[in-house]
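User: Round two. Same drill as before: sequence, then structure, for each protein.

Assistant: Same drill it is. First protein:
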Amino acid sequence: MSQAERTETTPPTEEEEFSVKETSVLFEAKASWVLLALLALAIWFRFLPLIAVSTFLLLLSFCMIWWKKKALTGLEPQLTFSTSRVFAEEEFHIDASLTNNKWLPLVWLECELAGSRLVSWGKQQRTYVVRFLWLLWYQRIEWTIEGKAQRRGVYECQDVTLRSGDGFRFSEQEKPFPVGQVLFIYPALRSVRPPAFRPSLQWGMNGKQGGFLEDPLLIAGIRDYEPGDEWRKFNWKASARTGKLQSNIYQPVVTEQLMIAIDVQAFLVQPEAYEDPSEQKKYELQKQEAFENYLSIIASFAAVYEKQGIMIGFITNALDYKGQPLASLQPNAQLTSFLDQLAKMEARIQMRKKDFLQKLRYELPRSVPLFLFCGTVTKEHYQWYEQEKNRLADVQFFYSKESEYSQRLTRLAKPFDEYVQQPARKGG
């Protein structure tokens, strides 16, 4: 930390943000002409007190205008985030520095980060403002900004605003400086226990048998028998020794992969769902909360499977925060790519449900199991499954609201809240 004195200030209110004082009228460039005219009159009438006052004000005005013009030149701010990716509710920090690359010292300097609903600074403040007193010539100062990710999204810190002027604050100006930092905020992880895959599923083969392809000569372990285990997997010696049926676990020779399809249509906000503005706002908040819970559970599923060595792929009908379609991802070992897409995702779409299901038909690898997450299982989902079931390795539906078609797919469709583990209550 440098010798410059640092003070953190309270962020401006919404009214103050749009009325930032830049300079006194007395020290505007136009006022100099008035002072010159006043000095000329004083000289004409040989009025010495007025000559002294107008001369002083004119010199002070020139100094203030020049100081204002030069104050923010030669400044070099730098921001380095401690991480480029965090989960919601996690804390992070920024290593900040500022160099004054000129001989003119600054009596005071304010550094401001614009407010955002995605992050908070210090004591839960939306806008971060810090003031330094006496930044000397060619001096470098360093400090740390503590932050917390409040909700999922992509926080783009493209600029930092610097504000400075003379010591009396008669004249001041502000200027944005580019820093170009991006923070991906992932959905908050929940404690979940996602379903296990069918023991008979053979990865890497097409059709109903698709899934796990195992080497029968490489036994990785033994476990209790589960319904659906093939007879060739039975370990008769272990069963006789333990008194319970035991099955061999074979070493897979094909990488285990999973595709996750995310249908966001049920979470779209209708702009005029209610005539009452308060009811409309309440409705929009409920939709947003349901969508965030939806993505949190999906991210938690993916995190659990990733720890099991399963590669995760991704496909959706959603748009990103810039209004662009989100690209599909083939299964890969980097969960970061999948979570980045979730951070960008918004509950907005361009394609119809029919087009999204058609996209699944052509972009979904046939030998990879599919988990399709949706708000509710619709007629279109059901018809798509009936047409494609013989070509797919394995399909499971996860929904938030039950429907007639989720009941028809009762073995394959489950509410995703069913897999969320509630925190244990403290006994009294």
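Second protein:
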Amino acid sequence: MKALGPLVALSIGALVSPAGAVALGGATPSPVVHEDYLIVSHDEASGRQHVLFAARLAPAAPRVLMGLPTPSTPTIEPLPKLDLAALVHTLVEPYERRTRGRAPAPPAAWVLDRSTLSGFVVAPSAGEQPFDASWTKGYVDRNFSFAVLDVVTPPGGPLEIMTPAAHISFDAPRVIVARREPPRAEPPVDEAQEGAAIPLVVESVRAEPKAIAPSSEAIARVLRARSGPLLDCYETFLERRPGEATKVTIEASIRPKGDTASLRSPSEKGEEATRAFATCVVKILRARQFPRTDEGWKFSADLAFKPPRTPARRTHLVLVGSSRYVWKDPPASARLLHDFEAKPEDVARAMAPELRRGMGLPEGKRLWISHWLDRDVRRALAEDALFDREDLPADGAPGTLSAPSGKPEVRPAAESPREKPRARSRSKRTENAIAAAAALVFTVALALWLARDERPSA
């Protein structure tokens, strides 16, 4: 095989046996996986495993090769019109409505007309492999093949690549997710410093009265401190608005001791994704301690967020089938978002009949869906995920269609700083009224008792 130039390998979890990963190559600068989807089914009757795969990469490159090691010779079928993010949303939306009383926010639309995808198979006996030799050696030694996805993006200045989906099928007796990746090359010093910059900038700090309020820099330091929770809010926002920079304006009143009397954001009245993001930021900043002053003061500021140079990794791993596959020892970076029995009509709405047949999903049987989100970005030493097959839970068990559906939890609204003194005042007035009534009863009773003793005897 002809050499394809500088190649860098990055692995993405895939369900193969005994291990598997996706490698990237053929792009300079090498792209980084931002988000990837793996929808997996295992045909237990034939031992055939099916994987639907698509990924978002940044920065964009004219050509990227993505290789999936498979323990047997695979077949590859491009599915250029299939939006895997929308497919997952369609699968979980009915469950969210049924159990939580609300629909989840839809994901950003997958751009399907920007890149093209073709596939080919590389045998382990090939003289040259299209990926980094140190990464492929372990698979070649075990006689693995490589399903290679060739993604071509025309010029036009896109910031990222959204690959078309592919259906990869191969023989595999059990389900294992390989999360281990080859170590990435260290970026140049200047790039590493820029990439490490926190994607949060505090802008336009305005405080009053000027004679009382701290300096703008002192306020900004408090807003920037312990930025981790704020960046978690932003990561959640990026799941709905991938690659989008945004800004949150906050308005606050601070008491002399430095605690917040009130803190709000006009963005809390915006559309759903912006509102949820602003509410998350406000909740965190409301608990901050600001500098002490002789009197109360106010300030406003803009918090600007931009996507980090190296995007955070989000792997959506969705298992669908007539059995339930359980991740026995998940890492802290992985979270089980959904684990439930799906209605046949919901699966049919998400997946066309030919796709269900291609994935080996049985007709007329119960189907179970497990949706994991893995955020680990350091996978060079990651342990493979081992899934145990279990029979579906009995009817009525948690997650089943016949499970009791509890009403969505409604938490009482927290008291605002202004409401708390009013509540204490009402409580004090009630206590005083009870004490006065008790004193009146005692006085009347005492007067009646004295009057009885003063009456003349018969």
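Residues 1-21, 186-197, 407-424 have pLDDT under 50 and may be disordered.

User: Perfect.
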